[in-house]
Amino acid sequence: MTPIAVFNPLSGEHQADPYAAYEDLVRRGPLHRTRLGLWLVSGHALATDVLKNRAFRTDYATALAQTYGHDFRRHPALRYLGDSFAIDSDKAGGEIRKHIARTLSQARVHAHRDVIRTLASDLLEPALQARSVDLLREFAVPYTLRVVCALLGVPPQLADAIPSVSAGLLTALDCARLSAAELADLDVRTQAIAERFVGFLDSPQARDSECI
Prior knowledge:
Elements: H1 12-16, H2 18-28, E1 31-33, E2 39-41, H3 44-52, H4 60-68, H5 76-82, H6 95-103, H7 106-111, H8 113-129, H9 135-152, H10 156-159, H11 163-172, H12 180-201, H13 204-207
Antiparallel strand pairs: 1-2
Helix pairs in contact: 5-12, 8-9, 11-12
């Protein structure tokens, strides 16, 4: 199978018309080999089957090594990415993932419904006053991030800093290879945010949190 061209859902071209790109993938078939040798699945039914099947996994450490070299962990951004519980489901015997799942449960969301409604109103108010709005960029993405951070007990000032590194980290995961300059910049920003999170986790505010 011929590898697909660089697939970068974070690029300006893709975001200008993402549906055309996804329709093209579906039209070309259900499975696509990516640049790093990973598989991209298109089509809702097959994607759902893969997500529910525990036999499937992604070896991100190998993929990152293939792209950035076997010493990729010298880069703070790639090291934190490779060590992320979201990528390595066996971290702490899977207990971290279980804790996050409990924290984001339907019952917990219901218990915090007033906070969640307030977060929605804070984003919707300026959007409704604007002549035009990008619902994905200006509401859906920041709203999801703020809700998850609120449920996890992450303070707003840290939550607002996450977008400065999230796009770069996602790009590193086989969207499109980061240049040396882009990776160096991402390293600096990722290290700075990591140090802020460590500082928060050592604070009384974090120790008093019901989640962390």
